[in-house]
Every structure is written in C-alpha cells, then in structure tokens.
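Could someone model zinc ion with this protein?
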Amino acid sequence: MSKLLSLHAREILDSRGNPTIEVAATTQYGVVQASVPSGASTGKYEACELRDGGKRYNGLGVLHAVKNVNQIIARKLKGVDVTKQVAIDQLLCKLDKTNDKHRLGANAILGVSLACAKAAALCNGIPIFKHVMSLSGAKKPLLPIPVFNVINGGAHAGNDLDFQEFMLIPVGAKTFGEALQMGAQTYHMLKNMLRESYGKTAINLGDEGGFAPQLKDHREPIKLLLAAIEHAGYDGKIKLGIDCAASQFYQKGLYHFEGRGVSSEALKNLYTDLVEEFPIVSLEDPFSEDDLDGFADLTQIIGKKCQVVGDDLLTTSVQRIHKAVQKRACNALLLKPNQVGTLTEALEAYQVASKANWKVMASHRSGETNDPFIAHLATGIGCGQLKAGALARGERVAKYNELLYLEECYHLRLASWR
Ligand code: PGA
Ligand code: ZN
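Reply:
Sure, complex below.
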C-alpha cells in the first residue's frame, strides 16, 4: 500500500534566485513534493551540493542532480515501502558510495529522502511531525521557540557587519502565537528605529529577511535590538542570540574582525565580555570550524549562561559531534538536514547531541524554498528551538505559519527555554 510508484525531480529556484532541486514522490495516496535549501556560508565539512558548473546559471544549475534522481535513484527505489526511511536512506548512501555524497549529490539525495518521508506521512494518514516522531522515537511533540534573525551581516548582507546574524529569542512566550507576535512587533519597532536614526537605506533586507543596516561595529546592533525590545514592551521576555559564523572571517591563524587581525584568545575575551554585559543566551560558531580549542575554552567559561552552538563546526555530522563532545567544544547542535544529506543521518545527529545533554536548534539555510519541512522536524523531535530567519519574506514565514497551523490544529505546547 505504501509502495513508491514514481519519483520525479526538477530544477526550481531558491529564495536567492539560484537553482535548487525539488522532488515529487508518488504513491497510491497521491503526490508529495520536497525541496532542498542551500547555504551561503557553508561549512567545509558539509556534504557535497552537486552543481553543474559551466555558464548556465553562473555554474549553479542542478541538472546533473536532477538527472541522478530521475535516471539512477528513481529506478532503484521504485516499489520500495516509503515508510522504511532508514532502509531508503541507507540505499541512497550505498548508491552514492562516497563519504560526502559527491557522486549523486547531497542535494539530490536529501530531496528524495524528504519526499519519501512526506509520502510515508501521507500513506499513514498522519501529519509530517507525527511521522518524524515515530522515526526519532520522541514521546511528545513540542513546538520550537522561534529564533528570529532580524539584523543580517556577514555573507548574507551588503554591509560591513562581520557577525552574520543578530537574533531575537522570545523566551518569555507562553504559546507559539505569542512568540510570533512578540517577534513581529519588535521587528517593526526595529524597522522604525532604523529608519529614523540611519535613513531609509538602513531598512533594506538581507538574505534571511533581517535588516542590513550599515552599522559601525557588533555592539551597535546589539544595543539597537535591546532598545527595540524595550520600546515594544518585551523587556526581559526577549533575549538575544548571535551567529558569528566566524569561519567566514578567519584566515591563516587570525580572525579578521572589524578591520583588525584578532587572535582566538582575544576573540574569546570579547565574547566573554559580551555575554557578561548583554542578555545573550545563544552564541553560534564563535570560532572557525577547525578551532576546537577556542570553542572548548569559551564553552568552559560561558557555557552555563549561554548555549554555544556548533554549525560549521559540526555540520550535522555524527563523527564531528562525537569529536566535539569528547573535547567539550560546545553544548548545542545546529541541525541542518542538507549539511548531511539524509533525514536518517540528521536524526542520528540529533540523537547523539541530545544523549550528550546538548541543546539542539533546528535550522533553515540562507537560500530557502517555501517547503516547511523543518517546522515539522523541530516539532516532531521536540528539540525546542528553530531558527528560520526574520518575520518577513515568504520562504521564512512559511515555516512560522506552519507552526501556527500546528499549534491551532493539534493543540501543541510551546517549548520552554531551558
Ligand atoms: P547559511 O547560513 O545557510 O548561509 O550557511 C545559516 C547559518 O550559518 O546558520
Ligand atoms: Zn550558522
């Protein structure tokens, strides 16, 4: 009954106007579609996103990946039981035969993996988050606290901010709807303040829907966010997160930060002071992906007050998480399915991180589609946190709106910030 009748991939565009892959899976119950996001500040240990090269779409076409689904994967998977996610994902890895999935492409493989998961939910007559629950063994679904990236810098914006993301975390919300409203009102307050103080160019948006003002240093956006929170009436109820994405400003032993070459040690002191001075509860990729010692030293100092999140550091890879657990390099995982290439491997990464008592934040990519899968993923595993960009742009609010729908239709509880 839950047999895969056919798979079909096509090339579509992501939110930056670059090609990505969409996969349709057909069973007796109908057709479902899944699409794959794409990063700009990608970690060097991520699985390989297969791009065509050449002139077409500046080399970013995905027609090879599409062909790999339509000609290789579709034939092999025809007739499989879509509810057997682990077996499907193992077969995909075996077909690819490489560690980083460069033969078939992690983008091709993830599109198929997610399409099968959606098909299985449809066959079983359950929402996707419930299917994710059964795959992950979670006992209770939980709506994630949304983490809103409202000031964009780094590789996501045309300004000079070195840190990539300045985020609002509505820790004081009781329901998802309330968290969303708190975020949206603060986002609009911030917009007014930016326009008044810096002129209308300051309210241009970056890739994830946050504002991309030309500010002079990292403290200015932090102070602006705190002022916006206060004016919106949410003092103490919204805390801050920063994604430094430090691999992007690291080169040959030094961090090139705000016009100076800074050592790992000096950067550690800067972070320690920031967390001391401001209500920052989440700090992501404060050091480069290979600076495990920098991560470990900082986690030891601030780890009780503030989660230290590994994104490029961990790339949702079980091996890299094990290594980081051993070195006590961080205490939270950023969970991005496309960094590893199958749903099963992403769920394994989640399990390993939670066994180590780490926090887990599910995440979008800077190049997104309207697929709301990660909203179901975060809810189904009950990890408690989801970052999906600002409170604007369709591909970002698609995730938040899906969570509103889940809250209303399934009466789910919002996670609390622990
Ligand atoms: P990316 O950014 O999708 O461009 O990698 C998101 C992040 O760094 O968390
Ligand atoms: Zn990141």
